[in-house]
Amino acid sequence: DIQMTQSPSSLSASVGDRVTITCRASQGISNYLAWYQQKPGKVPKLLIYAASTLQSGVPSRFSGSGSGTDFTLTISSLQPEDVATYYCQKYNSASFTFGPGTKVDIK
Amino acid sequence: EVQLLESGGGLVQPGGSLRLSCAASGFTFSSYAMNWVRQAPGKGLEWVSLISGTDAYTYYADSVRGRFTISRDNSKNTLYLQMNTLRAEDTAVYYCAKGRSGVPAAINYWGQGTLVTVSS
To answer: How distant, in Å, are the alpha carbons of A3, A45, A56, A88, B47 from that of B2?
Structure first.
């Protein structure tokens, strides 16, 4: 099975900072990669699909990139409402594994 | 408006069974793959199972294969998860989740979840 890892596991940044989260697949998954945001006590929300396509209604400060095994989620200017845990997920082949998550909070 | 409403969660003893349901509305149910995703208390998301729109194929996480069965009734717009031989580690909130399109697809809608607790 393809394993998904994320780094860092948590981060603390200031409002307005550029934040980058990395997701790595143990084997190539082309661009079958999504990013989700889960705020405390809420259900997950789709941010990015196909590695770099912004889901409708998601603020443009969120962006995704990568292909194959290495992917990044970038928040260009961190806002207080971005405090959440972020998960990547592969959705190719017969397994749709999530990464372990990256918890983001405000310094 | 897409709505996904899970039901069937509760307390069950180890080794027991439970059947979850998810009533879907607001979209053409048979056209979309559907998932079950779970989240243990204080833990991350774990994908559990997926079924294609036409019921042609199903997929399972290794942790539940052979114990859980996903199914759907497109005439009733309802998704199911039959869970047998439950273990303490199956304790989690179970979310019904809709794919963006056919398999493979990211998940663009989630239900509010139903809590399953496996304990004696």
So the answer is: 31, 14, 15, 23, 21
